[in-house]
Write a structure and sequence with these properties.
Blueprint: E1 5-6, E2 16-21, E3 42-47, H1 64-81, E4 84-89, H2 92-107, E5 113-117, H3 125-131, H4 139-148, H5 159-176, H6 183-186, E6 193-199, E7 218-223, H7 233-248
Parallel strand pairs: 2-3, 2-4, 4-5, 5-6, 6-7
Antiparallel strand pairs: 1-3
Length: 252
């Protein structure tokens, strides 16, 4: 499990696990650290995809199906063992949704809460437009494209590291574009509450469709900042407090 999951603070007595899915090109260095910031009731797992960090020598995932199969096969025992919630940011949102849909359909398992961040609802026009967007081959053009859709952050100056980040982001975006969601065939897929977060200075996302994905409550919160508002310490603290309150209010 250590290959797929980063868990920097093990909490065997936790009531619930929070499974975090990073953004395109991201690793576990930011969200895994949340494990030190939550209280003892929540244990944090951060998903590590192939092609980065300790999995640098592995080939990138080919499509969303391969990601879903790996996550569910590795984590199924843990997900059956105790309640779990998902937090996902940007393109990682669709990975978390693909996993959640698979768990519900095949195993009857559902998160107690879905925390989604800075992404179009999967049943929206904005999501379809993003999926069909052609990806430029040239690095600078690709970065400009990512910036246009809100998903760019400050890149390292080192050229080799920069190229690796761009390559990883490109491959993760290709995986996202293989995510299939047909709302008409699914009725209402979830019954858990859904909370959507975004940055006040980020691009505008097509988000009202989140209400159609669950029979539970849907809430929307805006934080000061851009697409990566969650990396600001003040926002991070508020996010963690809010997520903790939502999870602890669920009848576990």
């Amino acid at each position: 499990m250590e290959k797929l999951v980063a868990c920097v603070q093990k909490r065997p007595g936790a009531l619930c696990r929070l499974i975090c899915f990073p953004w395109a090109g991201g690793g576990t260095s930011q969200l895994a650290q949340w494990g030190k910031l939550f209280n003892d009731s929540i244990e944090v797992f951060c998903i590590r995809l192939p092609g980065r960090e300790t999995r640098l020598q592995e080939p990138f995932a080919k499509d969303m199906t391969s990601v879903v199969n790996e996550v569910t096969s590795v984590l199924l025992k843990e997900l059956e063992e105790k309640p779990f919630a998902f937090f996902a940011h940007s393109l990682g949102t669709y990975m978390s949704l693909a996993v959640a849909l698979h768990l519900k359909e095949k195993y009857g398992l559902e998160p107690v809460h879905l925390f989604m961040s800075a992404a179009h609802a999967p049943n929206s026009v904005g999501h379809l437009a993003l999926k069909s967007m052609p990806l430029p081959d040239e690095d600078n053009e690709f970065l400009a494209c990512m910036e246009m859709v809100g998903g760019c952050y400050e890149l390292p100056c080192d050229e080799a590291v920069r190229k690796k980040v761009v390559l990883t982001s490109r491959e993760d975006t290709k995986v996202f574009q293989t995510f299939l969601f047909e709302k008409a065939e699914r009725n209402i897929p979830f019954s858990c509450d859904v909370t959507y977060f975004c940055g006040s200075d980020d691009k505008v996302y097509d988000v009202q469709g989140w209400r159609e994905l669950t029979s539970g409550d849907t809430s929307f919160y805006t934080f000061p900042g851009d697409h990566f508002y969650l990396l600001k310490p003040s926002n991070e603290s508020l996010l963690i407090k809010h997520i903790t309150r939502c999870i602890e209010n669920v009848d576990l």
